[in-house]
Specification:
This protein has about 180 residues and is mainly beta. It has 2 helices and 15 strands.
Amino acid sequence: MQATPESLAIWPYQFDVRLHVEIRESLTVTLDVTNTDSKAWTFSGALHTYLHVGDIRETQTSGVGTEYIDSLQNSRLCTQHGLLTLTDTIDRVYTQPEPLITVQDPALARTLTVENQGHNSAVLWNPWQQGAQSMADMNDEGYLHFLCVESTLHAPSLAEGITLQPGQNHQLVTQITSQAQ
């Protein structure tokens, strides 16, 4: 995707953005962003990964780090330690995740790994029952069967995102692997 008259009307910069998808033993998704303008610009973004799980209440997630911004508590900075087991709605930006996030999925007897590159954070999200019931495109029990684990270039504002100089490139990569337990 490149700049068009329509895109320039809302964001006045030249760019080239490509999404690469590779399916082998793992799924690899790469968002490749290049500044083709004559001046620097700043951006942020995320690869929204919805992982199918057997039962969200049984999953355990590791590798997200200890500090997170809780979007459900007015962006309050919080900490956690150990494995993450979900019991309610989650909408968190983990600010120092490891490159490899692991989701143990005992209901489907597997381990999912999400390996991220080019990111500065990871988002975990699940609307839980009340959120699922309010979504027209999700059945009421849909929350039980997914966890969103996003490779993210988080920025509190666009001005605080990643700045690319003319000709500079940035790649945001996520690789998802499933292994039987």
